[in-house]
Amino acid sequence: MNSSGTDSVKDQIKDIIESPKQFAKEGIQFINRCKKPDQKEFLKITQAVGMGFAALGALGYIVKLIHIPINNILVGAA
Questions:
Q1: Name one GO biological process term (predicted).
Q2: Considering the chain, what percentage of its residues have pLDDT values greater than 70?
Q3: In b/e form, how buried is each residue of 42-73, taking b as 16+ CB within 10 angstroms?
Q4: Predicted confidence pLDDT, tens digits, the chain (78 residues)
Q5: What is the 3-state secondary structure (H, E, C) of the chain?
């Protein structure tokens, strides 16, 4: 019974030590696969992000335009 308990502790310690090693190994593999985008790909990403900003900005503006009169009606009625 005692030897199985020490085996369990040894396995836990081994898992604790092995986890950061595995994380570092996978991180290195990920970095090695990454590449810098070329100019065409960068422009596509920039356009997509710009369109997203514009869409969310327009949506926020529309919501604010709707909110102001409703807020004035509710506050003005009090």
A1: intracellular protein transport
A2: 91
A3: eeeeeeeeeeeeeeeeeeeeeeeeeeeeeeee
A4: 455 667 888 888 888 888 888 999 999 999 999 989 999 999 999 999 999 999 999 999 999 999 999 988 888 765
A5: CHHHHHHHHHHHHHHHHHHHHHHHHHHHHHHHHCCCCCHHHHHHHHHHHHHHHHHHHHHHHHHHHHHHHHHHHHHHHC
